[in-house]
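Budget justification note: compute hours in this period were largely spent on complex prediction jobs such as the one shown. Inputs:
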Amino acid sequence: MTTFKLTLEYDGTNYHGWQVQPGMTTIQGTLQEAMTRIVGKDVHVMGAGRTDAGVHALGQVASLRADFHHPPDTLRRALTSSLPPDIVVTAVEAMDDEFHAQHSAHWKRYRYTLLTRRYPSALECRYSLFVPYPLDRDAMIEAGGSLIGTHDFSTFQAAHGSAESPVRTVFAVEFRQQGDHLVFEIMADGFLRHMIRIIVGTLLDVGRGRIGPEDFKAIHDGQDRNLASKTISPHGLCLLEVSYQPFDVHREQTQTPCAMVCS
Amino acid sequence: MTTFKLTLEYDGTNYHGWQVQPGMTTIQGTLQEAMTRIVGKDVHVMGAGRTDAGVHALGQVASLRADFHHPPDTLRRALTSSLPPDIVVTAVEAMDDEFHAQHSAHWKRYRYTLLTRRYPSALECRYSLFVPYPLDRDAMIEAGGSLIGTHDFSTFQAAHGSAESPVRTVFAVEFRQQGDHLVFEIMADGFLRHMIRIIVGTLLDVGRGRIGPEDFKAIHDGQDRNLASKTISPHGLCLLEVSYQPFDVHREQTQTPCAMVCS
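Corresponding output:
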């Protein structure tokens, strides 16, 4: 048996999220079926993060153990031809047996994409949230900065979230204006259920002046889901990267806690 | 009755092309139904070009005549909220009565997007053609240059194409390398059925060395569909722009007949 690390892209639109659920088409279930077809035995595929229904990934990581004695890239090609076009395995590596996609991960990076122009986009309607109203970006950046550090994120957790502890460490938050897109990126050691979607929903209320940046911090400190704004749509969210290196090793020169990056 | 010009974006994946067909969901049919709901009468919507099933648009133009006495932007907003998210009206203008989306057009610009890397893309599988083999870009550029000018394009017309004349004028052809994408753009006074998909299919055979650039010109001159390569998938194709100005007015400084533009 060899332990493999898979790196994955997927369009989550047509899936009921990552995790296997009876009678539902999920990313994990689709991958497990493809692996079983390839190796002829049941294979359990473990994901680094359980993305919700409709959430996409450009850099999800999964691990599995299987009897496969060809080069790892042969498994990559076999999986890609066996999977539907909206799930792509971009890399396969053989790992030490102790590698575990979820437990070995140090941090993850997610992106939420807002489309800020007068009219929605037909070609991007699956990948960004259309925001037709003007946004005060400076206020959003100021509010976003207060997320950084080790905090109780109960305010930004789904009411039915079931994490043992609501404490997470956010290493960095970035805003980036790319043409008509305002992109929000967040790097943390882990995320509570719906955490990013509730954070961005609340930041949007900061951006439109309903909440002041200083109120955002008070809402966060209140540790009460009812204080925050609604959970926004999953389709603007994408898991970009799962890192197996400590954050400060990877990104030594983070200068500002929350900045607008122009690109 | 006022004549309106609509500018449109659409994701063609879920439509049987532009043109109304009985029992099929089409872009034209969906637009006409939305207009009818808004003005309470049957409205005929005329497109600048009849895109095939699966082809997208970022700048399709349509014209219609209707009794609508509010500002044109009110019609844009009414249409956008009435249409499904994969069809977006980006602009509405009131025009002189002689304006006709198809007959008044001087030229159109289409883009075909190739994804040239080792593995396909899950998030772009609806918008680009995956090309896993290496391409000789210089040979493709040389061959593409021979398309420019006024020619009989019978070689690059669907076998069941029904155009009165196979003669078209190609004003410009461009290749652009954008990260992992090789983008082909073509501007012409009109296009025969499947013309761009057959041209790009044949250029791909030039790129992989099956056809020399000089053979490409001979194939074109042969005026026989059987000489060209197969019609490639519609999903990499997108109608970018319909222009109502003569080409040389719009783009005075076209330097090279067919060039690689780096961006």
